[in-house]
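INFO batch 0412 | record 1 of 1 | parsing
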Amino acid sequence: MGTFSEGIEVVETAAGLPLHLAWRGGRYTLAAEPLRWYRRRNWWDEETRAAPGTGAGLVDREIWRVQVRRDGGSRNAPLLTLDLVRYLPSGRWRVIKIHDALTETVEELEPGA
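INFO prediction complete | emitting tokens
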């Protein structure tokens, strides 16, 4: 499977936790405590040099797994689980994996649907 990466807007809490998402024309709110971990990356494949003091985000990527519910939807609607990456120091967020993409919600996720 190829690499998936798509931009997403994330509203964070004061502590830096994801709280609300804007993605593919929809707004989502977290429905469960997010999980965070770090994944090593082969920075030398993407960078020619590593300047002294630029370690944050260079060696490890910050990954978040979030469960969200579309705003305005039913409280009984299934949760959507996404893996997000936050690029440091820019603070930009991207979706890198969609879990639980149920057949009935795929049409809702399609752009322009």
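INFO post-check: The longest strand covers residues 60-70.
INFO record closed
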